[in-house]
Amino acid sequence: AGGASGSPADPADAPGTATSPGTAAPDTSTLDGSVTVFAAASLKGTFTELATRFEAEHPGVDVELNFAGSSDLVTQITEGAPADVFASADEKNMTTLTDAGLIDPAAPVDFATNVLEIAVPPGNPAGITSFADLANPAAKVVVCAPQVPCGAATASVEQTTGVDIPAVSEESSVTDVLGKVTSGEADAGLVYVTDIAAAGDAVQGIAFPESANAVNTYPVAVVDHAGRLDGATAVARAFVDFVAGASGRAVLSPAGFGAP
Amino acid sequence: MSLQFRARMPDRGFDVALDVAEGETLAVLGPNGAGKSTLLALLAGLLRPAEGRADLDGTVLFDVPPASRRGTVLPPHRRGVSLLAQEALLFPHLTALENVAFGPRSRRGGDRSADPHTLARTWLDEVDASGLAGRRPHELSGGQAQRIAVARALASEPRLLLLDEPMAALDAAVAPALRRTLRRVLAGRTAIIVTHDILDAFTLADRVVVMDGGRIVDSGPTRTVLDRPTSPFHAGLAGLNLLVGTVAASTPGGGEVDVELDVELGVELGVEAAGTRVRARADAPLEPGRPAAVAIRPSHITVTVTPPATDTTTTTTAATATATEPGHTVLEAHVLDLEQRGDVVRLRTEHLAADLTPGEAAALDLTEGQRVWCRFAQADALAYPR
Amino acid sequence: MSLQFRARMPDRGFDVALDVAEGETLAVLGPNGAGKSTLLALLAGLLRPAEGRADLDGTVLFDVPPASRRGTVLPPHRRGVSLLAQEALLFPHLTALENVAFGPRSRRGGDRSADPHTLARTWLDEVDASGLAGRRPHELSGGQAQRIAVARALASEPRLLLLDEPMAALDAAVAPALRRTLRRVLAGRTAIIVTHDILDAFTLADRVVVMDGGRIVDSGPTRTVLDRPTSPFHAGLAGLNLLVGTVAASTPGGGEVDVELDVELGVELGVEAAGTRVRARADAPLEPGRPAAVAIRPSHITVTVTPPATDTTTTTTAATATATEPGHTVLEAHVLDLEQRGDVVRLRTEHLAADLTPGEAAALDLTEGQRVWCRFAQADALAYPR
Amino acid sequence: MSYRSLPRWLIVVAIVGAAFVVLPLAGMVLRVDWANFLPLITSESSLDALGLSLRTSLAATALCIVLGVPMALVLARTRFWGQKVLRSLVLLPLVLPPVVGGLALLSTFGRRGLLGQTFDAFGIQLAFSTTAVVLAQTFVALPFLVLSLEGALRTVGTRYEAVGATLGASPSTVLRRITLPLVLPALLSGAVLSFARALGEFGATLTFAGSLQGTTRTLPLEIYLQRETDPDAAVALSLVLVVVAIVVVAVAHQAGEASPLRRGRRLVPDAQDSADIRPVERRQS
Amino acid sequence: MSYRSLPRWLIVVAIVGAAFVVLPLAGMVLRVDWANFLPLITSESSLDALGLSLRTSLAATALCIVLGVPMALVLARTRFWGQKVLRSLVLLPLVLPPVVGGLALLSTFGRRGLLGQTFDAFGIQLAFSTTAVVLAQTFVALPFLVLSLEGALRTVGTRYEAVGATLGASPSTVLRRITLPLVLPALLSGAVLSFARALGEFGATLTFAGSLQGTTRTLPLEIYLQRETDPDAAVALSLVLVVVAIVVVAVAHQAGEASPLRRGRRLVPDAQDSADIRPVERRQS
Ligand SMILES: Nc1ncnc2c1ncn2[C@@H]1O[C@H](COP(=O)(O)OP(=O)(O)OP(=O)(O)O)[C@@H](O)[C@H]1O
Ligand SMILES: Nc1ncnc2c1ncn2[C@@H]1O[C@H](COP(=O)(O)OP(=O)(O)OP(=O)(O)O)[C@@H](O)[C@H]1O
Ligand SMILES: [Mg+2]
Ligand SMILES: [Mg+2]
Questions:
Q1: What are the boundaries of each domain within chain C?
Q2: Average pLDDT across chain B, whole number
């Protein structure tokens, strides 16, 4: 019964998954149905991996993933998007949903942290070595706009260090900052450690100690949905626990995420 | 009475009442802007009258009371009235056959017994266009297209067929063939044909209506209206010179007549023809003192730039219409202008129009306002009562 | 010699060599597709010849050697050649005055002494259109627009003026005024006028060239080519019936001639006119045995459906051309078709074409193939050598 | 007779302009890592996205036709008060930033929107479903269809329709058998442009429909997401979209040129008519 | 003579279609918090963004005209190998997802792009400059201008140009005094559409030019950013954009209707010509 309610947006595959209760599964094999996870765009790599692992552990479960900027996701959930789990890239967007009554204020669990790192194109043409170097007006530095989480983090580091970055652009997402650096347009950009890890050879990361002043925390929570059946909620809870637990750590750490 | 029509459209100055009998073909003549196309559009249902009523074989086409926004106006497709315009307007995406089959195929419910394509073939045959069945409109000449359009209009089996200058857009060389076709298919059919072409009226119509300024100014059997015109407008339509006056003398039993002209002609040029006599032929006896008209073909008038000096009688000054040669009349006149029409040149004077060959016209080397002498044989002038 | 032209365009079958003298106006006649517009386009620079050379007052317009992609071809704006087409093509965004001033304003460098607008006003005056200076093209009638176009073409002071059927798109009623204007402005100007209108050729041109199939088939002074046609094509252009044959007998010093026809006419209908004699008028003596032509105006031919029975002589069967009345010739013939032309009806037979009034045509009630008798006065038939 | 002479400098500028458009596309092609191209574009998520894009774009095109044809007809064939304003409004999605379009759609069809509550009451939830993708695409693509078609309808005029009516065809028959066949090329080219625009739709879809693999994540969204991890892969995927779009635009232009009305009237001389012409005759102007 | 009869059901569908476009806009208007509307749209960042948007869109429109007019002329007036392909390519930005457009621009004009290095050598740096915004907007807006103008040029034909040449006007003079005035309405309406499209440009700007208040953050980017913190404020700002776009589209349509060639040929009867007509005369067909 829970399966049918899991994803009204894509009901076709739900009945199919309900028919096969796990044969050789451990005690959690009672779980079946599907769960729709709304996750911040920066979690794309890790959550895709986590979903695969979760599905492997629970053969009756189907995980649907929806990635976008955290605030996009908030808008979508407020407008009635069928989210079961929301993983935000910051606490602010999570608060928006708890304030809106869509998530139990006690529910959010922090499952990862992230810190800023300087991203430079391969070869580091502007010779950036420290956070203070970003103040050099000759270097083209791109940051996030203060309205978005990474921008807020940048601003707080700037404030605590007193370094004023003459940014050539204040992007509205980390992706756009990273895009400017990987394409070589910018000499440096402030992004998350995890973004640099995901970008591979396209950029070089330069860690700086001041980043500790603005640790970004990733909360995850089950979305309350009026009329949603307990079966779905159970799967959602299991997924949240999975992410926040040891399995989550095993995937998140290699990607650069810190422990909460 | 098949069609009874009466409608007003004050914004176009249109006010016409008109009846057409079952099987009768009516020709509508008149100058540009006379309201001829308006009449057809009202009948076809493409225009809504401000006021009026029309009834076709018992079906009310429209019935609009004065100053009312209500009233019945039957939509075009329920009228059984087909309209054939100057341009063939064949549907470009259909073959000739499919064009003709359009009407039968579109007919709502009713008689579906006959296969539209079979019917279409019959009509194509009827207009001598069976060989064109598979052609697309862009592969047809103007005359061919118009013939298909005739077949298409007829295939919809209209109770009333409207033709708006069907030959006006055709080359002179192909018009005769279409006229023959129309003559055949219009026989015994209720139809209204608008035309500028007097030959159409003569060959196709039983009755003629002349419109001007949105009103009917004359009507009657074709012959009466056009063969012996009594007004300059009709004379113009019939392509004749018209002189009007009073019978002065007449040979008993017809034959020769002298008519004293009673109109002042060419006043602007200081030439006066009133009071002048012309001698003409008459088919029937004309009583002296009665009004008469004299018609002369422009091509029967000979023009010279010098007075016919070889004649024994001299011409009088000013308005002169004297028999200079035995059986000939000469009128002095002044050139208004010259105009090429087909392969003749029409010379217009204040009295008479004459048709010359281009060579003659060039030989005369005429200039505007020049004095000329127009001569015609009394055998070529026909007098009749008016 | 002002213009020397020779060009070939094999893809259009065009191959023409042509000279026009300083101040001469040349008329180009010919059927559709003869290459008349091609000739003008080559001269104006809108087409590139495959081969040829043209020289205007010492300027080489083009010089393209055979089978070469090189060669000089002067662009249109450097040629000093103005082209006036059927449609006026006035620039719709400019007033009449600005249209006329366009040429003077666009002239490169050189003579800027005269103010373009002053010049334009002069030319508008010249074509009697000063009152239209401020109008936009859409506020002008066809005739007015064409008159402005003439002024515009002349204001650019072309060394050669080309006119491509300048009156073809005009209503018959307004053509004469433009013809008068053209006659005035073309006097003494080097110009080429393409026309279907024989009157244009007569009134405007000094010399005529007849084209057919991309080649010049005849040329000469206007009168020689058109006044006394010796080929059916020229007769057609001049609007005359043409009978050709051999002089059989002639009165001394001109006057009357008998011509024995030597062409077989109307073979398809089984009527043969060859060997038949017609009697005609001659202006000059014609030597018996020499080839001659007889021209008769279609409007001089009277048509009857019964043999002229009142005559004392009976008509022979088949090809019959006998003097039935004193001074009249009757030819038996068969109706090919009828056609309305302006306000006359042209009846065509296998021998002769006759012009009737619509009333006469309707009265005769002719059908295709019907036997008729064509009569003409010998005074109306002109014989001359060919 | 033809005159085709352009100033030289103009051709140079035109080449610069063409380069401005063509070079970026060439630049993209050069950046593609061809070795990984095939695996990338045949990965499950890419194929899912491409399939979804094609399906939703087709559905959106169909919806554009269903809604757009009547709209174009009403705009071209009737006169009513406020027609000009309505036409401006209909064209608005053409110039609206897509994100704003998505917000507008949410404010109507979203759960808290004008109609959303009504729909909700009936248990219909549009937002974040494949239907939402189709709606978003239809919203941005509709003006292309209406624009092309209205122009063509005005050009064709009402004369053929009037003839059809006098031959006994009802308005619906006239529409089906005359009007639509006459404007078919414009309808096709409008539909193809709509399809192309729907295929490229991104902002409104993201805002209004979300980005759920297989359900709402169309190819442009996949490309956007791909940029997060692998910008070069994004470029490669873009190339797929570009190729589809080029094909589609080329087809649209082809269809536009085949219009029966553009062909003009060729007068094929015919024995039956021209046999009438005799030597004495000449053309009458 | 006119025939204008549409089936009833069709009008109903048209109304549904119109509602589909108009309701979302109405929904937006209803969501606006009018109390805060004025302070919001007059905030420094909003005014900066609006000002920048207007300035860059105007510049982009100018660039579109400079590049687009020659391109349209070459496409309409010449024939060359590959013309059809080129036309498809020129229209491509019309259907390209804007982000892809931005990527394409980066790959050409970016620092490491095809031409970027050359530019760099001359000390020209496009990235993060207002110029980059203008380039991005021009890229997406150019097809609108080329499309409108090419169609108009083909419709006008070359006959007036040929007349101008035979009157002694050089190709440049013909272009300036005949061709351009004749297609002026189409040029205007194309320019206005381009302007509107440039005004709404978002994706390519974001990807290619960045987002810095007063330099590269145009109104659509501001709206996008505003959404992060206050979606309702974003809707209010969108409304400003919508109003500008409506005005602009209405103007474009007005300009298109005023075309001198669409007006057709009215024949004003004139005394000078009609005085020739005498009673014996009648019209010759
Ligand atoms: N669409 C229209 N709207 C308003 N008035 C019109 C319209 N069409 C024609 N008229 C006017 O109606 C009158 C009659 O025009 P109509 O077209 O019926 O004349 P017509 O006799 O057919 O002339 P023609 O011989 O030129 O075809 C004219 O005064 C004309 O100006
Ligand atoms: N644009 C063209 N391309 C190729 N051939 C053409 C073109 N225009 C005309 N022709 C051909 O060139 C020949 C001459 O045509 P042209 O237009 O010069 O004739 P014309 O004498 O002016 O005829 P008309 O009296 O109809 O104007 C014809 O065979 C025609 O088919
Ligand atoms: Mg009319
Ligand atoms: Mg020609």
A1: 3-233, 241-385
A2: 80
Instruction: Output D179-184 pairs: Cβ under 8 A, ≥24 positions apart.
Output: D179/D73, D179/D153, D180/D69, D181/B91, D181/B93, D181/B94, D182/B91, D182/B92, D182/B93, D182/D156, D182/D260, D182/D261, D183/D149, D183/D152, D183/D153, D183/D156, D184/B93
| Helix-helix angle C116-126:C96-106, to 10 degrees | 120
CA–CA separation, B240 and B300 (whole Å): 10
Q: Which two tokens stand for residue D217?
A: 């994540």
C368, B357 in Cβ contact below 8 A?
no
The partner residue sitting opposite A81, judged by closest CB among D112, D210, D217, is D210
Per-residue pLDDT, C151: 92
Determine, for residues E5 and B31 on separate chains, whether the beta-carbon distance falls below 8 Å. Answer: no
Report which of residues A16 and A29 the model is more confident about.
A29
Task: Return the domain boundaries, chain D.
Answer: 44-263
CB contact under 8 A, D175 and E7: yes
| Alpha carbon of D231: minimum distance to chain C alpha carbons (Å) | 52
| Bridge partners of residue B384, in order along the sequence | B293
C33 lines ligand 2 (CB under 6 A): yes
Q: Which of B173-177, C163-167, D97-101 has the highest mean pLDDT?
A: C163-167
Residues with CB under 5 A from ligand 3 (ion): B 37
Mean pLDDT per segment of 10 residues, for chain D of length 285 residues? 73 89 84 82 85 93 94 88 81 76 82 76 76 92 86 82 91 91 85 85 82 84 78 80 77 56 32 29 32
Centre of ligand 3 to C-alpha C196, Å, is 28
Partner residue facing A9 (CB), from D212, D225, D231: D212
Angle between helices E44-77 and E83-91 (to 10 degrees): 170
Gap between the Cα atoms of C369 and C357, Å rounded: 20
| Topology of domain B3-233, CATH | Rossmann fold (3.40.50)
Q: Is the pLDDT of residue B293 over 90?
A: no
Q: What is the C-alpha separation between D61 and E231, in angstroms, rounded?
A: 30
Q: Mind listing the pLDDT tens digit for each residue in E35-79?
A: 888 888 888 888 999 999 999 999 999 999 999 999 999 988 888
Sheet-wide strand order for C25-29: C81-84, C160-164, C191-194, C25-29, C207-212, C215-221
User: Among the CATH numbers 3.30.420.40, 2.40.50.100, 3.40.630.30, 2.20.28.120, which is that of C241-385?
Assistant: 2.40.50.100
* Per-residue H/E/C for A141-172: EEEECCCCHHHHHHHHHHHHHCCCCCCCEEEC
| CATH class of the domain whose range is E44-263 | mainly alpha
Q: Determine how many CB atoms are found less than 10 A away from the CB of residue A166.
A: 12
For residues A130 and A202, the answer to whether their CB atoms sit within 8 Å is: no
Candidate from E2, E5, E282 with C-beta closest to B196:
E282
Please give the share of chain C, as a percent, with pLDDT higher than 90: 26
Tell me the pLDDT tens digit for each residue of A2-23: 333 333 334 334 333 333 343 3
Under 8 Å between Cβ of C61 and C41: no
| Residue C380: pLDDT over 50 | yes
Q: How many CB atoms lie within 10 A of CB A52?
A: 12
Q: What is the pTM of this model?
A: 0.74
Q: Which ligand lies nearest the alpha carbon of C215?
A: 2
Contact D88 E249 (CB under 8 A): yes
Helices (H) and strands (E) in chain E, counts: 15, 0
Whether B241-385 and B3-233 are alike in CATH topology: the answer is no
User: Can you give the pLDDT at residue B1?
Assistant: 61
Residues of C with CB below 8 A from B201's CB? 358
Q: What is the pLDDT of residue C313?
A: 38
- Over the stretch E176-185, which tens digit does the pLDDT of each residue have? 999 999 888 8
Rounded-to-integer distance, Cα C272 and Cα E133, Å: 89
Between residues D158 and B315, the one the model is more confident about: D158
